[in-house]
Design goal:
Keywords: Cell membrane, Membrane, Transmembrane, Transmembrane helix
CATH topology of the largest domain: Growth Hormone, Chain: A
Shape: globular
Strand content: under 5%
Radius of gyration: 22 Å
Helix content: over 70%
CATH class of the largest domain: Mainly Alpha
Largest sheet: none
Order of helices and strands: HHHHHHHHHHHHHHHHHH
Distance between the termini: 56 Å
GO molecular function: transmembrane transporter activity
Number of helices: 18
Number of strands: 0
Main location: membrane
GO cellular component, one term: plasma membrane
CATH superfamily of the largest domain: MFS general substrate transporter like domains
Protein name: MFS transporter
Number of domains: 2
Length: about 425
Protein backbone atom coordinates (compact mmCIF):
# COMPACT_ATOMS: atom_id res chain seq x y z
CA UNK A 1 0.00 0.00 0.00
CA UNK A 2 1.39 3.38 -0.99
CA UNK A 3 2.11 5.68 1.96
CA UNK A 4 0.31 9.03 1.86
CA UNK A 5 1.82 11.96 3.75
CA UNK A 6 -0.71 13.45 6.18
CA UNK A 7 -1.77 16.97 5.30
CA UNK A 8 -1.05 18.20 8.82
CA UNK A 9 2.53 17.03 8.43
CA UNK A 10 2.88 19.05 5.21
CA UNK A 11 1.55 22.07 7.10
CA UNK A 12 4.06 21.35 9.86
CA UNK A 13 6.89 21.24 7.32
CA UNK A 14 5.90 24.63 5.92
CA UNK A 15 5.85 26.10 9.43
CA UNK A 16 9.29 24.62 10.17
CA UNK A 17 10.61 26.54 7.17
CA UNK A 18 9.08 29.72 8.54
CA UNK A 19 10.81 29.35 11.92
CA UNK A 20 14.09 28.57 10.16
CA UNK A 21 13.93 31.60 7.86
CA UNK A 22 12.59 33.94 10.55
CA UNK A 23 15.53 33.23 12.84
CA UNK A 24 18.04 33.79 10.04
CA UNK A 25 16.45 37.18 9.34
CA UNK A 26 16.50 37.94 13.07
CA UNK A 27 20.20 37.31 13.73
CA UNK A 28 21.76 38.17 10.36
CA UNK A 29 22.39 41.76 11.45
CA UNK A 30 24.75 40.57 14.19
CA UNK A 31 26.92 38.74 11.65
CA UNK A 32 26.92 41.64 9.18
CA UNK A 33 27.37 44.22 11.94
CA UNK A 34 31.18 44.58 11.69
CA UNK A 35 30.99 45.13 7.92
CA UNK A 36 28.15 47.65 8.29
CA UNK A 37 30.04 49.53 11.00
CA UNK A 38 33.18 49.69 8.85
CA UNK A 39 31.39 50.85 5.68
CA UNK A 40 29.22 53.48 7.40
CA UNK A 41 31.76 54.55 10.02
CA UNK A 42 29.43 53.76 12.91
CA UNK A 43 30.25 53.89 16.59
CA UNK A 44 29.50 50.94 18.92
CA UNK A 45 26.63 52.95 20.37
CA UNK A 46 25.06 53.46 16.94
CA UNK A 47 25.48 49.78 16.13
CA UNK A 48 23.90 48.87 19.48
CA UNK A 49 20.95 51.12 18.64
CA UNK A 50 20.47 49.25 15.36
CA UNK A 51 20.63 45.90 17.16
CA UNK A 52 18.12 46.90 19.87
CA UNK A 53 15.53 48.41 17.50
CA UNK A 54 14.14 44.93 16.84
CA UNK A 55 13.28 44.04 20.47
CA UNK A 56 10.69 46.67 21.36
CA UNK A 57 8.09 46.15 18.60
CA UNK A 58 8.80 42.41 18.88
CA UNK A 59 7.58 42.44 22.50
CA UNK A 60 4.58 44.68 21.77
CA UNK A 61 3.44 42.57 18.81
CA UNK A 62 3.28 39.33 20.79
CA UNK A 63 -0.22 39.77 22.21
CA UNK A 64 -1.47 41.96 19.36
CA UNK A 65 -0.34 39.52 16.67
CA UNK A 66 -1.78 36.54 18.54
CA UNK A 67 -5.10 38.31 19.11
CA UNK A 68 -5.37 39.25 15.44
CA UNK A 69 -4.79 35.60 14.50
CA UNK A 70 -7.58 34.52 16.83
CA UNK A 71 -9.95 37.04 15.28
CA UNK A 72 -9.03 37.09 11.60
CA UNK A 73 -7.39 33.70 11.16
CA UNK A 74 -3.66 32.88 11.11
CA UNK A 75 -3.50 32.72 7.31
CA UNK A 76 -4.27 36.38 6.65
CA UNK A 77 -2.30 37.65 9.62
CA UNK A 78 0.82 35.58 8.99
CA UNK A 79 0.76 36.48 5.29
CA UNK A 80 0.83 40.18 6.16
CA UNK A 81 3.47 39.73 8.86
CA UNK A 82 5.75 37.67 6.61
CA UNK A 83 5.46 40.29 3.88
CA UNK A 84 6.48 42.96 6.40
CA UNK A 85 9.56 41.11 7.62
CA UNK A 86 10.55 39.89 4.13
CA UNK A 87 10.39 43.37 2.60
CA UNK A 88 12.21 44.96 5.57
CA UNK A 89 15.00 42.36 5.32
CA UNK A 90 15.38 42.89 1.58
CA UNK A 91 15.27 46.70 1.96
CA UNK A 92 18.08 46.58 4.53
CA UNK A 93 20.40 45.84 1.62
CA UNK A 94 19.64 49.32 0.27
CA UNK A 95 19.88 51.26 3.56
CA UNK A 96 22.23 54.24 3.51
CA UNK A 97 22.05 55.64 7.05
CA UNK A 98 21.75 54.73 10.71
CA UNK A 99 18.17 55.96 10.80
CA UNK A 100 17.19 53.81 7.83
CA UNK A 101 18.70 50.73 9.46
CA UNK A 102 16.94 51.48 12.76
CA UNK A 103 13.59 51.90 11.00
CA UNK A 104 14.02 48.69 9.01
CA UNK A 105 15.01 46.66 12.09
CA UNK A 106 12.04 48.17 13.94
CA UNK A 107 9.80 47.10 11.06
CA UNK A 108 11.32 43.62 11.13
CA UNK A 109 10.40 43.42 14.82
CA UNK A 110 6.78 44.23 13.94
CA UNK A 111 6.66 41.44 11.37
CA UNK A 112 8.40 38.78 13.42
CA UNK A 113 6.82 39.82 16.72
CA UNK A 114 3.42 38.42 15.83
CA UNK A 115 4.69 35.48 13.76
CA UNK A 116 5.27 32.81 16.43
CA UNK A 117 1.97 33.45 18.28
CA UNK A 118 0.20 33.31 14.90
CA UNK A 119 1.94 30.01 14.13
CA UNK A 120 0.86 28.68 17.53
CA UNK A 121 -2.73 29.64 16.70
CA UNK A 122 -2.36 27.84 13.36
CA UNK A 123 -1.57 24.61 15.21
CA UNK A 124 -4.73 24.81 17.34
CA UNK A 125 -6.98 23.32 14.65
CA UNK A 126 -4.29 21.35 12.82
CA UNK A 127 -2.47 19.37 15.51
CA UNK A 128 -4.07 16.83 17.89
CA UNK A 129 -3.22 17.17 21.59
CA UNK A 130 -0.85 14.19 21.51
CA UNK A 131 1.25 15.78 18.72
CA UNK A 132 1.43 19.39 19.90
CA UNK A 133 4.63 18.98 21.88
CA UNK A 134 6.40 17.46 18.88
CA UNK A 135 5.06 20.18 16.57
CA UNK A 136 6.27 22.98 18.81
CA UNK A 137 9.56 21.20 19.46
CA UNK A 138 10.54 20.59 15.86
CA UNK A 139 9.54 24.06 14.67
CA UNK A 140 11.70 25.67 17.35
CA UNK A 141 14.50 23.24 16.51
CA UNK A 142 14.43 24.71 13.01
CA UNK A 143 14.59 28.18 14.58
CA UNK A 144 17.72 27.26 16.52
CA UNK A 145 19.17 25.61 13.43
CA UNK A 146 18.56 28.84 11.53
CA UNK A 147 20.46 30.74 14.21
CA UNK A 148 23.34 28.26 14.10
CA UNK A 149 23.84 28.36 10.31
CA UNK A 150 23.38 32.12 9.89
CA UNK A 151 27.08 33.00 10.43
CA UNK A 152 28.46 30.76 7.66
CA UNK A 153 25.58 31.61 5.29
CA UNK A 154 25.89 35.37 5.74
CA UNK A 155 29.69 35.28 5.64
CA UNK A 156 29.61 33.22 2.42
CA UNK A 157 27.33 35.74 0.70
CA UNK A 158 29.43 38.64 2.02
CA UNK A 159 32.58 37.08 0.58
CA UNK A 160 30.79 36.39 -2.71
CA UNK A 161 29.18 39.82 -3.15
CA UNK A 162 28.89 41.94 0.00
CA UNK A 163 26.79 42.49 3.13
CA UNK A 164 24.03 44.29 1.22
CA UNK A 165 23.55 41.33 -1.11
CA UNK A 166 23.23 39.06 1.95
CA UNK A 167 20.11 40.94 3.06
CA UNK A 168 18.70 41.07 -0.47
CA UNK A 169 19.09 37.29 -0.90
CA UNK A 170 17.64 36.48 2.53
CA UNK A 171 14.74 38.90 2.06
CA UNK A 172 13.90 37.31 -1.29
CA UNK A 173 13.97 33.88 0.38
CA UNK A 174 11.48 35.11 3.00
CA UNK A 175 9.12 36.37 0.30
CA UNK A 176 9.33 33.01 -1.48
CA UNK A 177 8.18 31.38 1.75
CA UNK A 178 5.22 33.77 1.85
CA UNK A 179 4.11 32.52 -1.58
CA UNK A 180 4.48 28.88 -0.45
CA UNK A 181 2.45 29.54 2.69
CA UNK A 182 -0.32 31.23 0.70
CA UNK A 183 -0.57 28.20 -1.58
CA UNK A 184 -0.44 25.45 1.06
CA UNK A 185 -1.95 26.68 4.32
CA UNK A 186 -5.62 26.95 5.31
CA UNK A 187 -6.96 28.14 8.66
CA UNK A 188 -8.76 24.87 9.34
CA UNK A 189 -8.49 21.28 8.09
CA UNK A 190 -12.02 21.35 6.66
CA UNK A 191 -10.96 24.12 4.23
CA UNK A 192 -8.11 22.04 2.81
CA UNK A 193 -8.97 19.94 -0.23
CA UNK A 194 -6.37 17.31 0.63
CA UNK A 195 -7.66 16.43 4.11
CA UNK A 196 -9.56 13.14 4.37
CA UNK A 197 -12.39 12.36 6.83
CA UNK A 198 -10.01 9.91 8.53
CA UNK A 199 -7.43 12.63 9.16
CA UNK A 200 -10.12 15.00 10.44
CA UNK A 201 -10.98 12.35 13.00
CA UNK A 202 -7.31 11.87 13.93
CA UNK A 203 -6.92 15.61 14.48
CA UNK A 204 -10.10 15.78 16.55
CA UNK A 205 -11.50 18.69 14.55
CA UNK A 206 -15.25 19.20 14.35
CA UNK A 207 -16.61 21.00 11.30
CA UNK A 208 -17.43 24.62 12.05
CA UNK A 209 -14.97 24.95 14.95
CA UNK A 210 -12.99 27.61 13.09
CA UNK A 211 -15.96 29.89 12.47
CA UNK A 212 -17.31 29.46 15.99
CA UNK A 213 -13.97 30.39 17.54
CA UNK A 214 -13.74 33.67 15.61
CA UNK A 215 -17.20 34.79 16.78
CA UNK A 216 -16.37 34.27 20.47
CA UNK A 217 -15.25 37.37 22.44
CA UNK A 218 -11.72 37.16 23.83
CA UNK A 219 -11.89 36.30 27.58
CA UNK A 220 -9.01 38.57 28.63
CA UNK A 221 -9.40 38.11 32.39
CA UNK A 222 -9.48 34.33 32.18
CA UNK A 223 -6.49 34.28 29.85
CA UNK A 224 -4.45 36.48 32.18
CA UNK A 225 -5.40 34.36 35.19
CA UNK A 226 -4.43 31.15 33.39
CA UNK A 227 -1.32 32.43 31.57
CA UNK A 228 0.52 34.79 33.93
CA UNK A 229 2.51 32.00 35.59
CA UNK A 230 3.45 30.54 32.19
CA UNK A 231 4.61 34.03 31.14
CA UNK A 232 6.75 34.30 34.27
CA UNK A 233 8.39 30.91 33.63
CA UNK A 234 8.98 31.96 30.02
CA UNK A 235 10.72 35.09 31.32
CA UNK A 236 13.05 32.95 33.48
CA UNK A 237 13.73 30.69 30.50
CA UNK A 238 14.15 33.65 28.14
CA UNK A 239 16.68 35.39 30.39
CA UNK A 240 19.17 32.55 29.93
CA UNK A 241 18.31 32.05 26.26
CA UNK A 242 19.09 35.69 25.45
CA UNK A 243 22.42 35.30 27.27
CA UNK A 244 23.30 32.39 24.99
CA UNK A 245 22.17 34.24 21.87
CA UNK A 246 23.95 37.51 22.61
CA UNK A 247 26.90 37.03 24.99
CA UNK A 248 28.16 33.51 24.23
CA UNK A 249 30.77 34.53 21.59
CA UNK A 250 32.10 37.33 23.81
CA UNK A 251 32.31 35.00 26.82
CA UNK A 252 34.19 32.32 24.91
CA UNK A 253 36.62 34.89 23.49
CA UNK A 254 37.17 37.09 26.54
CA UNK A 255 36.87 34.64 29.41
CA UNK A 256 37.92 31.35 27.81
CA UNK A 257 40.52 32.64 25.36
CA UNK A 258 39.29 31.08 22.12
CA UNK A 259 40.68 32.68 18.97
CA UNK A 260 38.51 33.67 16.02
CA UNK A 261 39.33 30.45 14.16
CA UNK A 262 37.75 28.32 16.89
CA UNK A 263 35.10 30.79 18.03
CA UNK A 264 32.54 29.96 15.34
CA UNK A 265 32.76 26.23 16.04
CA UNK A 266 32.52 26.48 19.81
CA UNK A 267 29.73 29.04 19.59
CA UNK A 268 27.74 26.75 17.30
CA UNK A 269 28.06 23.62 19.49
CA UNK A 270 25.73 24.81 22.30
CA UNK A 271 23.23 26.08 19.71
CA UNK A 272 23.25 22.73 17.92
CA UNK A 273 22.69 20.98 21.26
CA UNK A 274 19.62 23.19 21.58
CA UNK A 275 18.34 21.95 18.21
CA UNK A 276 18.26 18.42 19.62
CA UNK A 277 16.77 19.58 22.93
CA UNK A 278 13.89 21.42 21.26
CA UNK A 279 12.63 18.38 19.36
CA UNK A 280 13.33 15.87 22.13
CA UNK A 281 11.48 17.92 24.73
CA UNK A 282 8.33 17.92 22.62
CA UNK A 283 8.60 14.22 21.79
CA UNK A 284 9.10 13.26 25.45
CA UNK A 285 6.19 15.40 26.60
CA UNK A 286 3.85 13.86 24.01
CA UNK A 287 5.10 10.37 24.91
CA UNK A 288 4.42 10.96 28.59
CA UNK A 289 0.92 12.14 27.77
CA UNK A 290 0.20 9.03 25.68
CA UNK A 291 1.51 6.76 28.47
CA UNK A 292 -0.10 8.47 31.47
CA UNK A 293 -3.06 10.33 30.01
CA UNK A 294 -2.10 13.09 32.46
CA UNK A 295 -1.42 16.35 30.63
CA UNK A 296 -0.14 18.17 33.71
CA UNK A 297 2.45 15.47 34.39
CA UNK A 298 3.44 15.33 30.72
CA UNK A 299 4.08 19.06 30.46
CA UNK A 300 5.27 19.74 34.03
CA UNK A 301 7.83 16.94 34.23
CA UNK A 302 9.71 18.09 31.13
CA UNK A 303 9.45 21.76 32.08
CA UNK A 304 10.81 21.21 35.60
CA UNK A 305 13.50 18.74 34.53
CA UNK A 306 14.76 20.98 31.73
CA UNK A 307 15.09 24.09 33.90
CA UNK A 308 16.75 22.18 36.74
CA UNK A 309 19.11 20.46 34.30
CA UNK A 310 20.13 23.81 32.79
CA UNK A 311 20.85 25.07 36.32
CA UNK A 312 22.84 21.96 37.29
CA UNK A 313 25.19 22.26 34.29
CA UNK A 314 25.62 26.04 34.32
CA UNK A 315 27.00 26.14 37.88
CA UNK A 316 30.12 23.98 37.34
CA UNK A 317 30.64 25.74 33.99
CA UNK A 318 31.22 29.00 35.86
CA UNK A 319 34.03 27.58 37.94
CA UNK A 320 35.72 25.02 35.70
CA UNK A 321 39.26 25.85 34.61
CA UNK A 322 38.99 23.95 31.33
CA UNK A 323 37.86 25.98 28.27
CA UNK A 324 36.75 22.80 26.47
CA UNK A 325 35.00 21.63 29.63
CA UNK A 326 33.18 24.98 29.76
CA UNK A 327 31.93 24.51 26.18
CA UNK A 328 30.71 20.99 26.97
CA UNK A 329 28.87 22.18 30.10
CA UNK A 330 27.39 25.12 28.20
CA UNK A 331 26.15 22.71 25.54
CA UNK A 332 24.57 20.42 28.15
CA UNK A 333 22.98 23.40 29.89
CA UNK A 334 21.53 24.75 26.65
CA UNK A 335 20.31 21.29 25.69
CA UNK A 336 18.37 21.06 28.97
CA UNK A 337 17.12 24.63 28.63
CA UNK A 338 15.70 23.92 25.19
CA UNK A 339 13.90 20.78 26.42
CA UNK A 340 11.41 23.23 27.92
CA UNK A 341 10.74 25.29 24.80
CA UNK A 342 8.26 22.95 23.13
CA UNK A 343 6.36 22.59 26.40
CA UNK A 344 6.15 26.35 26.91
CA UNK A 345 4.73 26.83 23.41
CA UNK A 346 2.32 23.89 23.82
CA UNK A 347 0.80 25.32 27.00
CA UNK A 348 -1.04 28.21 25.27
CA UNK A 349 -2.78 25.66 23.00
CA UNK A 350 -3.52 23.34 25.93
CA UNK A 351 -4.88 26.08 28.15
CA UNK A 352 -6.47 28.54 25.73
CA UNK A 353 -7.56 26.39 22.75
CA UNK A 354 -9.21 28.68 20.23
CA UNK A 355 -7.58 31.67 21.95
CA UNK A 356 -4.10 30.17 21.62
CA UNK A 357 -2.85 33.07 19.50
CA UNK A 358 -3.56 35.61 22.23
CA UNK A 359 -2.33 33.23 24.94
CA UNK A 360 0.86 32.47 22.99
CA UNK A 361 1.46 36.19 22.66
CA UNK A 362 0.97 36.65 26.39
CA UNK A 363 3.47 33.90 27.12
CA UNK A 364 6.12 35.10 24.69
CA UNK A 365 5.86 38.62 26.07
CA UNK A 366 7.88 37.20 28.95
CA UNK A 367 10.59 36.24 26.48
CA UNK A 368 10.38 39.67 24.83
CA UNK A 369 10.77 41.51 28.15
CA UNK A 370 13.69 39.26 29.02
CA UNK A 371 15.23 40.25 25.68
CA UNK A 372 15.01 43.93 26.63
CA UNK A 373 16.59 43.47 30.06
CA UNK A 374 18.85 40.40 30.03
CA UNK A 375 21.54 41.38 27.46
CA UNK A 376 21.87 44.91 28.88
CA UNK A 377 21.93 43.77 32.53
CA UNK A 378 24.41 41.00 31.72
CA UNK A 379 26.74 43.47 30.00
CA UNK A 380 26.40 46.04 32.79
CA UNK A 381 27.30 43.45 35.44
CA UNK A 382 30.33 42.34 33.42
CA UNK A 383 31.49 45.95 33.19
CA UNK A 384 30.93 46.63 36.90
CA UNK A 385 32.38 43.39 38.28
CA UNK A 386 34.98 42.70 35.59
CA UNK A 387 33.83 39.10 35.52
CA UNK A 388 31.17 36.82 34.04
CA UNK A 389 30.63 35.02 37.37
CA UNK A 390 27.90 37.20 38.92
CA UNK A 391 25.89 37.52 35.68
CA UNK A 392 25.87 33.74 35.19
CA UNK A 393 24.94 33.15 38.85
CA UNK A 394 21.94 35.45 38.44
CA UNK A 395 20.89 33.50 35.35
CA UNK A 396 21.22 30.28 37.34
CA UNK A 397 19.10 31.72 40.14
CA UNK A 398 16.31 32.61 37.72
CA UNK A 399 16.41 29.06 36.32
CA UNK A 400 15.80 27.76 39.84
CA UNK A 401 12.94 30.18 40.45
CA UNK A 402 11.39 29.23 37.10
CA UNK A 403 11.65 25.51 37.91
CA UNK A 404 9.76 25.97 41.19
CA UNK A 405 7.10 28.11 39.49
CA UNK A 406 6.68 25.45 36.79
CA UNK A 407 5.42 22.98 39.41
CA UNK A 408 2.28 25.09 39.85
CA UNK A 409 1.28 25.26 36.17
CA UNK A 410 -1.81 23.17 35.41
CA UNK A 411 -2.73 22.87 31.71
CA UNK A 412 -5.97 21.12 32.69
CA UNK A 413 -7.35 24.44 34.01
CA UNK A 414 -8.44 25.55 30.56
CA UNK A 415 -10.50 28.49 29.40
CA UNK A 416 -12.83 26.16 27.49
CA UNK A 417 -13.40 24.02 30.58
CA UNK A 418 -14.53 27.16 32.40
CA UNK A 419 -16.94 27.95 29.56
CA UNK A 420 -18.31 24.40 29.57
CA UNK A 421 -18.86 24.54 33.34
CA UNK A 422 -20.73 27.82 32.97
CA UNK A 423 -22.96 26.37 30.24
CA UNK A 424 -23.81 23.37 32.43
CA UNK A 425 -24.73 25.63 35.33
CA UNK A 426 -27.11 27.81 33.30
CA UNK A 427 -30.07 25.32 33.29
CA UNK A 428 -29.72 24.83 37.03
CA UNK A 429 -29.66 28.55 37.66
CA UNK A 430 -32.62 29.34 35.39
Amino acid sequence: MKYRIKTRHIILGVMCLMYFIAYIDRVNIAVAGPMIRHEMGLSNTELGLIFSAFAYPYAVMQILGGWMSDKFGPKKVLLVLSLIWGVSTLATGFAGSVMALVVLRFTLGIGEGGAFPSATRAFTHWMPTAERGFAQGITHSFARLGGAITPPVVVAIVIWKGWREAFIVLGALSLCWTVLYALVFTNTPEEHRRVTPEELKEIGYAKGDGQRSRRTPTPWRKLINRMWLVTFVDFCYGWSLWVFLTWLPSYLKDSRGFDLKHLALFTALPLLAGVVGDTLGGVLSDKLYKITGNLRRARGTILFTGLVGALIFILPMIYTASPIGAVILLSLSFFCLELTNAVLWSLPIDIAGKFAGTAGGMMNTGFGIAGMISPVAFGFLIQVTGSYTIPFLISAGLLGVGAVAALFIDPNRTVEADDATLENLKPALS
